[in-house]
């Protein structure tokens, strides 16, 4: 991996992990578009999935007392189905189309989040079913699922502190499933993953980001950090989308 690419990947992981510690989400939205841009869709999303596993574990340790485990258990089977479908698409789709999926899915999910902020409260299991399937699918194909959960939280008026805490085991489970299904189904090309020594470097970057986020969480409003994460995600997703459309 080129030095500048590694620095960009580390920077994205530090920023994303820090934002996730402050706002409950951020690693996937920030890191996935950047890693996809430099490493390509398959390898970029795989690295993002692994970084998200480490981030969620570290953040969950701090927020575990506020997790809604009953809601987590209800949503987990739906994410499994969505993750398998996403892995099948990663194996079959062209690289350019994966770029389109990465960029387009993030932009659509963020737009849905903004629209649902002003909508009436959604009730019933239908919203949970759709969100669970969509989140598992999006996480495997694009490395980003938090916007789907954010849209669900806004639509159902899920209290933010409980949502941010419960999101950690959801993201942990989704990213573990995404990595497992990709490896088992052969969705990552041989030689496509980074060299072994890159992984501990990125893990250190994630740890530094979570530590910085813990410091910022006591000083920066979560709403401000979430807006920054969304802004960076929109820019990265738009770049990936344009690149995919230009090469289709």
From TrEMBL:
Matching InterPro entries: TM_pro_TauE-like, TSUP
Family per similarity comment: Belongs to the 4-toluene sulfonate uptake permease (TSUP) (TC 2.A.102) family.
Protein name (record): Probable membrane transporter protein
Chief location bin: membrane
Transmembrane segments: 34-60, 72-90, 96-116, 196-217, 224-246
Highest rank taxon of the organism: Bacteria
Compartments reported by the entry: Cell membrane
Family matches, as Pfam families: TauE (PF01925)
Keyword annotations from UniProtKB, A to Z: Cell membrane, Membrane, Transmembrane, Transmembrane helix, Transport
């Amino acid at each position: 991996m080129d030095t500048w690419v590694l620095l960009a990947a580390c920077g994205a992981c530090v920023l994303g992990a820090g934002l996730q510690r402050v706002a409950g989400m951020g690693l996937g939205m920030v890191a996935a578009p950047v890693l996809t841009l430099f490493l390509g869709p398959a390898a970029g999303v795989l690295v993002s999935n692994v970084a998200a596993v480490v981030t969620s574990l570290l953040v969950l340790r701090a927020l575990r007392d506020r997790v809604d485990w009953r809601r987590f258990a209800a949503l987990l089977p739906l994410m499994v189905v969505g993750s398998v479908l996403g892995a099948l698409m990663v194996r079959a789709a062209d690289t350019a189309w994966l770029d389109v999926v990465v960029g387009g899915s993030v932009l659509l999910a963020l737009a849905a989040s903004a629209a649902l902020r002003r909508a009436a409260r959604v009730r019933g299991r239908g919203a949970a079913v759709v969100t669970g399937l969509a989140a598992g699918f999006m996480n495997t194909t694009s490395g980003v699922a938090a916007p789907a959960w954010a849209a669900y939280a806004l639509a159902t008026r899920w209290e933010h502190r409980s949502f941010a805490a419960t999101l950690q085991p959801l993201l942990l489970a989704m990213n573990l499933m995404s990595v497992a299904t990709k490896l088992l189904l052969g969705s990552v090309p041989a030689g496509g993953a980074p060299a072994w020594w890159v992984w501990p470097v990125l893990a250190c970057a994630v740890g530094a980001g979570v530590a910085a986020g813990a410091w910022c969480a006591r000083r920066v409003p979560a709403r401000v950090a979430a807006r920054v994460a969304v802004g960076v995600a929109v820019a990265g997703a738009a770049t990936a989308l344009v690149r995919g459309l230009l090469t289709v």
